[in-house]
Amino acid sequence: MFLPEERERAALIEVVRLGDDQLVAIWEGDSARSALDLIASVPYEEISRCFVPGWMIRAHDGAGPLFEIEFCFRCDGALLRGPVVPEDQRMIHGFAAQSAQAQELLARFRSEEPA
Questions:
Q1: Sign of CA dihedral 85, 53, 97, 100
Q2: How far apart (Å, rounded) are the C-alpha atoms in residues 35 and 39?
Q3: Which residues pair with 94 in a beta bridge?
Q4: Can you tell me the distance from the alpha carbon of 5 to that of 30, in angstroms, rounded to the nearest whole number?
Q5: What CATH number should be reported for the domain holding residue 104?
């Protein structure tokens, strides 16, 4: 999946469950890098039309926010936006939500939800 070049600057990722906009986790250091590597490895897929995202990440460096991605695992769409994202890349990108990589990412998100 497409990520901005500045992803290497990310030191912290906030994981947000959309709907109730609940911050469920903060991943730092190796956890943040591992998550971004996993996201980058998700293959491309055509987007369906629903786009009702359930999860979002916000990537930050020491100076503030870099980018965020909202994920819809139903329509294979991921909205990328943020201060380091060029205007022509601020859009919904396709990703293979049923791929092993995307399912691992979804499992990581769900493992952070409060019981």
A1: positive
A2: 6
A3: 77
A4: 18
A5: 3.30.1490
Predicted model pTM: 0.95
- Would you call 80 helix, strand, or coil by DSSP? strand
Beta bridge partners of 58: 14, 68
What three-state secondary structure class fits 56?
Answer: strand
Dump pLDDT digits (tens) for 30-53.
Answer: 999 999 999 999 999 999 989 999
- The larger pLDDT score, comparing residue 83 to residue 114, is at 83
| Number of domains the chain contains | 1
Provide the residue type at 45 as one letter: E
For residue 80, the Cα-to-chain-centroid distance in whole angstroms is: 8
- Domain residues for the domain of 30 are 5-111
Q: Closest by alpha carbon to 4, among 83, 103, 97? A: 83
Strands of 29-102, DSSP E: 55-61, 64-72, 77-81, 92-94
